[in-house]
């Protein structure tokens, strides 16, 4: 009974809600959550008590960002986000045999192969090691495919590049675990294997383990989402999503790659010279303007803050240039600080639109001096039939009436 | 394969840009910490299901195309098509007659076992671990060998009488075997 005052507030809130619902039924507009939320707002919030505290928070009913879920992927709504962090429930998904349900009490990670001491770590053991928490982007290497061939004007940032997200990842450095089991000197690779129905496997060069790979169990302060590998996943900062094996159950250390299905028949990049590139792990520098972008229509000319995200799997973004005239002139965008390596970087460029047709482009540069290529450059280097790693410059056409459409032409 | 591994290691030397302090090395940290427990031999055996191109990991057993054909119709054809070309999911059968592996130039080409897979052992490894989609991991070694024999025959790589086993499968040379190259992107000014 100590929470009597709260109960009273809850009662009041409940009563207000019931009245609101009644009113809605009368108007006939209580069809969608958007409407009920909108119309449930009191005319003056200072004149009625607000809602009570709750055990689990949720978004304002006015905000309804959604992934686009289709087939085995779901896309992050980049145009609805601000800053650089992706809310965990909007992090993109790509699964090869669905999302498994794994009991954390029964979870174990086996490390064996070319090691001195084959070992098993349960979740409690993994969490007992000194942990690190760092923000990194994660991107599917197929991201951007819809802007490379068969390009349509009606493409949103979410449709084009929604297979990238940024989270703060918490976990134990894989190097710590490898020291624990004692890796033999001849070891060059390790196999990472998931506990999903695809029993997903990728071979990873062991240098990445000594560099910055994690066995991650935390995401944005919370446990990993099931869709991102609960209870633990491999995380390889800056490397293509598929290699970041989710629901990881086994690591086998070896002196060669295993040539699994994913790293041979799938995540390889055919090139124009009659070869196919394999083990193309690093995601090269890329950027996309997320506002203004399709399906937005600018209501008028004047000052508009062009904004978007840039990222590079090779380190920090050092510069993003923006052009509003299709690439004739470029000017540097402001990078939101701090700029972190292998992490989404927010950029902004204040634009005074004169109301005439415009073409908006962004071009990222990373700390290696790599400059995000044009579509023409990428097609020339790799061919029209290539696949994966589509990091060319994106374009948005602003029409005289303010309507914005995707600007690249097939 | 070893040459490829060495080249990969070289390729990674230049990739440490952007590395930041991970907090991994700390003064006075115990080595080892002593967390976790030794793995029992039988739990390693139960999970160690991978196969390598040299045949290591392949189990005893064997299969032929004729036996695999029956199983294929029962368990695979609904997704991959009666002859392996119809879909609706990944087509498995295709040969490319042009000698220059034109996948990078021709976006209409369909990647399949006969024209794109570089290693025959991968077929066993993948079917064994992940297929059929509604009952992954349910096939016995003889059944997997039979399916592999059937698919290799359908793709025109082996004879219809070929027996697939731990000895014969690693010796099958796939048409696309020599087409794969290591990643040569390094950052910097060049677009590759």
Tertiary shape of chain A: globular
- CATH homologous superfamily placement of the domain at 59-177 in chain B: Cytochrome c-like domain
Based on CA atoms alone, the radius of gyration of chain B comes out at 21 Å
- Got a strand count of chain A? 24
Low-confidence residue ranges of chain A: 1-35
* Strand arrangement across the biggest beta sheet of chain A: 5-4-13-8-9
Number of domains of chain A: 3
- What is the overall shape of chain B? globular
User: Which H/E pattern describes the elements of chain B?
Assistant: HEHEHHHHHEE
Which structural class do you get from the secondary structure elements of chain B?
A: mainly alpha
- What is the top-level CATH class of the domain at 59-177 in chain B? Mainly Alpha
| End-to-end gap of chain A | 68 Å
Question: Major sheet of chain A, described briefly?
Answer: 5 strands, mixed
Q: What structural class do the secondary elements of chain A suggest?
A: alpha+beta
Largest interface here, residues on each chain?
A-B, 87 and 76 residues
